[in-house]
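Protocol step 4 of 6: structure prediction from sequence.
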Amino acid sequence: SGISGDRSCVVLNDIHIDIMDYIVPASCTDTEFRKMWAEFEWENKVSVQTNISDMNLYLDHILGCTNMKCLTPKQALSGDCGFLAANMYAKSVFGEDALANISIEQLPDTGALSGHIRIRAKSKVWRCLSETR
């Protein structure tokens, strides 16, 4: 209460924040990635479920949805072997790191993609990445 006894109220339900606005693609070396991967305690494993049948298009889709940067060189992702594995990295504007690894294959009988995306971070704050598809 103020001097006059008036009270102000802010309705927090009306405030909408998109956590993705606070996540930016980032770079690190392979050594730094492996060190953080070993140190980070929180992990979420997400099964791939998509109508996208091209592995590189799916990777681009995931990178766009998560604001992550692909650390795996493009030449390592080229070719048509039916399998794709890549490391991804992002930072929050608050300096928190998030790592991800995508490992997918194209099923020969259906052409559908199958696999997982593993996300690692120091805390569950990054759970929002696993909800993005």
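Step 5 (inspection) to follow. DSSP finds four helices and six strands in the chain.
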